[in-house]
Amino acid sequence: MTVNLATGGEFLLTEAAGSGIFTPEDFSSEQRQIAETTDEFVKKEIIPNLDRIESQDFGFVVEKMRSCAELGLFLGDIPEEDGGLELEKTTSMLILEKMAPTGSFSFTYCGQTGINVLPLVYYGTRDQKARYLDKLTSAEWIGAYALTEPDCGSDPLSARTTATLTEDGRYYVLNGVKQFITNASFAELFTVFAKIDGKHFSAFLVERGYAGFSVGPEEKKMGLKGSSTAQICLQDVRVPVENLLGEPGKGHKIAFNVLNIGRLKVAATSCGMAKGAFAEATLYARERKQFGRAIGEFGAIKEKLADMVAGIFTAESAVYRVAGLLDGRIAALDHAGPDFYDRYQKAIEEYAVECAIAKVFCSEILDEVVDHGVQIHGGYGYISEYPIERYYRDSRIQRIFEGTNEINRILIPTMLFRRDGSGSLALWDRVKEAGDRMAGGVEEVEVNGGGDFSREFGLIARLKHLFLLVLGGAGPVKESQEVLVALADMAITIFVLESVVLRAAKMHAATSERKMALLEAVVKVAAFESASHFHLAASRCCAYSLRGDAMSSRQKDVSSLSAYPAEGLLGAKQLLAEAAQESGKYPFNGL
Question: What average pLDDT score do residues 33-55 get?
């Protein structure tokens, strides 16, 4: 794989045309084999047993988790030195995508291979890894991650759980309550966050069998019913000092560093769920007849199917672009030295903005897809006998996981501002340049990009320029949450559209005439939707921050620069819908 060392956030400041990204078409034969193994396991072992899983037969869930482990599916993110496979992040995302249609089971799996084991991998001592890592990667033990508390969700550093060192210095005594803990009912090892002496936020490895540790009843959830979610209570729980994970008072590093990759995993899972839901909707549209015709022949249904295809194509383009960025940065690291994992975490943190973008966009595309899927099913979409009902229930939590989408939207521009302040992103210099270039009018804006998809590359160039203009006009209100959210929506739109067009340009020359037509159609639909979303977000931001003639002038710029004449849009949507119904699934699989 070509190493890509792009700077995090620089997509807003650089020309799109010619940039290299990783796309699903770049998967190696080994990666495709791993995906096939995962897909076969899902179809044979999990999908036929979803009712049993949904009934909360947790013994069966653990049994299937161990079957996963036997296939090596727990080892992807584990370093070779710790007995793992140390796979690329692109491979990890592909596995999650294939696991995603299982709903509750995929959630249990994702927790075990992610936040339940990675803190131990990154911050554990040799002794801690010797005692616990093999148990977790074999699924002999299931893990859990205990961060959230009843009164602190989005603000974990306000946690009230305390840890007090005993007089003999041998134990920390933990007291507190943790809320919404995944895998709680059957986990044996918990990563628990508490404040030493009520001040120093730290992490501890807590075994289920410790005296004073208890698990509450299962939460009655809207979706993911086959996963375990419960409260845990710690009442004078004595935890050996050797089970302190990482350094005292450095628990925030553990809590937050796993969130970046966790957000990308939510994005990948959302893609997989969306593909599964889309397949259900497409098959139903082919089979259900009204007025003597399959409902998929009607234009209103075709439009929904086409929008779903374009949304999924855009989402997966963004996911694997970000995963490829991470792989490139990680591949450039020198593995030698005791500070490797610190450098590893910084490599992932470099793309914190991009991870947040992927999480927000993909989780919201998932909700659009499942909503359309239910609507296509009509009344049957509301009946639990049809799989689309489960997809609808299970999808909603993705917008809350790993930081709500509101928190992530606020983080996106905030992190960009911080990167500018640290000197790693010349954001405000470019804002000034954009204002100077605009002094003579819209015609001075350079629109670059030639060859395939030149119109779309030109749109991206204009949107980037417009983002800088709108940001420059935000003035003193630029850090109000409403403005930050609008700025985030603009940045998200630029990144995902650029991901689509770069992918399409890369694929274009290597496709058949039929596939080329599909590719051009999906780009047209994605560009039209992106231009519309950007226009709305930019207009909102201008209305928040400008007044009078300044606002009127900037709104004209917004309308002019975000315009995308999508000639042939109807034909493009019809082509995508027809291709989906012909194949009975997402039509870009295997392109």
Answer: 97
